[in-house]
Design goal:
Layout: E1 6-11, H1 21-28, E2 33-37, H2 46-59, E3 62-66, H3 73-81, E4 90-93, E5 96-101, H4 120-129, E6 138-142, E7 153-155, E8 158-159, H5 163-172, E9 176-178, E10 187-191, E11 194-198, E12 206-213, E13 216-223, E14 232-237
Parallel strand pairs: 1-2, 2-3, 5-6, 6-9, 9-11
Antiparallel strand pairs: 1-12, 4-5, 7-8, 10-11, 12-13, 13-14
Helix pairs in contact: 2-3
């Protein structure tokens, strides 16, 4: 007897523009969870974040998010109050644990929601994974990409990801690691058995779709602007 499939849609880098939310949900089909990997707003606070996620919350039961570097700190407080936050914590659905860490490393723009590499992400992720049983499948949600993949490239050979997030992935091997932040680094990569996914900015029509069923993870990057949705399709076996 097959397990019930768990279908996920992930978006990132809205930057204050939610006009494509309904199109994403329509194109994604039947999904149970929307993951938002930061930069909901463009240097705004809780009021704008509430407005931006209102459409998704009306249509989907589970909408979970982490803040990005362009979200004011109050966005995290609002996410926590609404039960939407995965920052430093986890939520479990159909036997899969979702955990996360928002914010980003210091950037050239001195944005309002940054943390240092030294211990910060490691501490946040240690809090997030606490209490998850060892053999529970996991999905990681961060704004900052892990270091050393196609998802953190800002130019040829120029990686801007987090070493701490990469070490966490190497140690715990979640099924998938959804991220964003670096707009030009769209794609799917791998760290061990973990699929690392940066769908690219929502405002350009990009999103990721994933399905977990019977020990198999299927990941696709899609666009609301394409008739043919399977621009990138990868599958892996849950180990």
């Amino acid at each position: 007897m097959k397990d019930r499939p768990l279908r996920i849609v992930s978006i990132t880098d809205m930057h204050g523009d939610s006009t494509l939310i309904n199109a994403v949900i329509d194109r994604a089909g039947e999904v149970e969870v929307m993951l938002v990997t930061g930069d909901l707003t463009h240097f705004q606070g809780a009021k704008e974040a509430r407005t931006l996620l209102s459409q998704a919350r009306r249509r989907l039961k589970h909408v979970w998010a982490v803040p990005g570097n362009c979200d004011l700190p109050e966005v995290l407080h609002w996410l926590e109050e609404e039960g939407l936050s995965l920052h430093g914590c986890h939520k479990t659905l159909h036997g899969v644990a979702f955990l996360g860490a928002g914010k980003s490393l210091p950037s050239w723009g001195n944005t309002p929601n940054e943390v240092s590499e030294d211990g910060a992400f490691a501490s946040i992720l240690d809090r997030a994974i606490a209490g998850i049983e060892q053999h529970t499948p996991r999905v990681l949600v961060t704004h900052q990409p892990p270091f050393g993949t196609r998802n953190d490239l800002v130019g040829p050979g120029k990686h801007r990801g987090s070493q701490a997030i990469r070490h966490f992935i190497e140690r715990h091997q979640p099924l998938a690691s959804f991220c964003g932040h670096i707009h030009e680094a769209q794609g799917v990569d791998r760290i061990g058995f973990t699929q690392v996914v940066n769908p690219g900015p929502l405002r350009e029509g990009n999103f990721a779709w994933a399905e977990i069923q019977d020990g198999t993870l299927r990941v696709e990057i899609r666009s609301v602007h394409e008739k043919r949705q399977d621009r990138c399709v990868l599958s892996c076996l849950i180990m």
